[in-house]
Specification:
Layout lengths: L1 H14 L8 H15 L18 H11 L4 H4 L3 E2 L6 E4 L8 E7 L5 E8 L10 H9 L3 E2 L4 E2 L4 H7 L7 E11 L5 E12 L2 E4 H10 L2 H6 L4 H20 L9 E6 L5 E7 L3 H24 L5 E3 L9 E2 L1 H7 L6 E2 L5 H10 L3 H14 L4 E3 L23 H14 L5 H8 L2 H38 L2
Parallel strand pairs: 1-8, 2-9
Antiparallel strand pairs: 3-4, 4-7, 5-6, 7-8, 10-11, 12-15, 13-14
Helix pairs in contact: 1-16, 3-6, 9-10, 12-13
Length: about 450
């Protein structure tokens, strides 16, 4: 508990501790070692959020059985992409690698973007014990001190993770994109890949942003891929912003813990080049898949964010009057995201810009899952879904099953009725669980920030 830690911190002040007069880095090391021996910080408690943390024995046994499955018999049924140059970009410590990308140029100069997603649905069959459990959880939860996965680690970190050099079953979407960022064609298929490279956000960003010579040599066979990916991501991003998508690129602060859950730093996480690449590629893949299936009129789960209700939230007239934005008090359902983006870009300084962004965020209703396809307001698109993370989000896993039935000619009227009978319930449960996970993640961050501040105050008071 924080109160208990507070008492310990007070005792630290009285007892004193070794003080290093050397470098700040060495001082931090001594402080960390001292705290490790003196503080016992409880892990953040998720019980009040109703989040299941452990997997029962039956689930674990089934996951172990699935992890032993061989895929040779399945490969011949799929598009073989093992020779295609695919790679993953994730956090350095990520274990559940559920998306890989490939990028090439067509003869006409258009980009051919490949987004390859782990085929979790091949292993987690509908109505199996693992499926029922995953449906209840609906999402993985990413806390400062640990990850609570939706699926057992034998699946999420093992058989479905797109590890370098390992043959993995995937669902692939290839998207042909012209120089203006317009999708001119697409193709969805069941596939098998063998990722040619596992890399991370920092390395790719340092190559793109800083031209790091050591990293360029290390990744010399992929430099052109990184550069083309960066160019395409910028094209896609520019197009999204021009159509009115709201982009809130405010750096986020995050508490860093050591191996004993002691907060040792508060860092600012910038959205770097590689983060933008993956974000833009996943957005265009999600949008492409959603548009395909809304046109097919097949029961599906969409990700929507509706325009706020009339008379509920307004952009304060004080902003308009004080900063001469050329607008009167405006109801948010009467303006487009493009109008809001222009307002944000018109304010005179960064502090006011961030305040306006905060007001607009609060005015927007939270995104939710739905069986009905309506707009996603902040992305400024009329059709969107979550397709790219079936390891950690249940809606993605569910629509993978729908996609595979469609691709294999199994989408009969009976199957349409089958999916139509429960996808709205799945959407509602998943919305509730994802919001609960968001709350838990925020509270965990606040929990460790309080401890971090208490520790820092104890140093100052020595």
């Amino acid at each position: 508990m924080i109160s208990e830690n507070g008492n310990l911190l007070k005792k630290l002040i009285k007892d004193g501790r070794p003080v290093s007069e050397s470098s700040k880095e060495n001082s931090k090391s001594i402080e960390s070692e001292y705290l490790k021996n003196r503080l016992k910080i409880s892990k953040f408690d998720v019980s009040e959020f109703g989040i299941d943390e452990e997997f029962d024995e039956r689930i674990t046994k089934e996951a172990c059985r699935l992890s032993d499955e061989r895929i040779e018999y399945e490969i011949n049924k799929r598009v073989d992409l093992r020779d295609l140059k695919t790679f993953t970009i994730d956090g350095k410590n990520s274990k559940d690698l559920d998306d890989a990308i490939s990028i090439n140029k067509n003869f006409n100069g258009n980009y051919i973007l490949g987004v390859h997603i782990a085929d979790v649905s091949h292993y987690v069959r509908e109505y199996s014990c693992i499926d029922k459990m995953a449906r209840r959880r609906a999402t993985s939860v990413y806390l400062n001190d640990r990850v609570i996965p939706m699926l057992p680690p034998e699946i999420s970190n093992g058989i479905c993770s797109l590890n370098q050099g390992e043959e993995k079953l995937t669902l692939s979407v290839f998207i042909e994109i012209d120089k203006h960022g317009i999708t001119v064609n697409h193709w969805i298929c069941e596939s098998v890949i063998a990722s040619h490279l596992r890399t991370n956000y920092d390395d790719v960003s340092d190559i793109i942003e800083n031209k790091d010579k050591k990293l360029i040599e290390q990744y010399k066979d992929f430099i052109q891929d990184f550069e083309e990916a960066d160019k395409l991501a910028q094209i896609l991003r520019d197009r999204r912003i021009k159509r009115g998508a709201l982009s809130f690129d405010t750096p986020e602060k995050r508490v860093i813990l050591d191996e004993n859950r002691i907060p040792i730093d508060l860092i600012t996480e910038e959205r770097r080049a590689a983060n933008i690449i993956i974000e833009e590629f996943m957005i265009v893949a999600n949008e492409t898949v959603a548009k395909h299936f809304v046109n097919e009129e097949i029961p599906f789960i969409y990700r929507i964010l509706e325009n706020p209700h009339r008379n509920k939230n307004k952009v304060p007239s004080t902003f308009v009057t004080t900063y001469d934005l050329g607008l009167r008090e405006i109801e948010l359902d009467e303006i487009t995201p493009l109008d809001i983006q222009r307002m944000i870009n018109s304010v005179p300084n960064e502090g006011v810009e961030e305040l306006l962004k905060c007001i607009v965020r609060k005015a927007n209703r939270q995104a939710r899952y739905s069986s009905s396809c309506t707009e996603h307001y902040t992305l400024a698109t009329d059709c969107y879904c979550h397709f790219t993370s079936p390891i950690r989000r249940y809606p993605d896993l569910q629509i993978h099953r729908i996609i595979k039935d469609y691709l294999n000619g199994r989408m009969t009227e009976a199957r349409r009725q089958h999916y139509g009978s429960f996808i709205e319930e799945v959407a509602e449960i998943s919305t509730l669980k994802s919001r609960t996970a968001d709350r838990a993640e925020r509270e965990a961050e606040n929990y460790y920030r309080k401890i971090y501040r208490a520790i820092q105050e104890s140093y100052l008071m020595r």
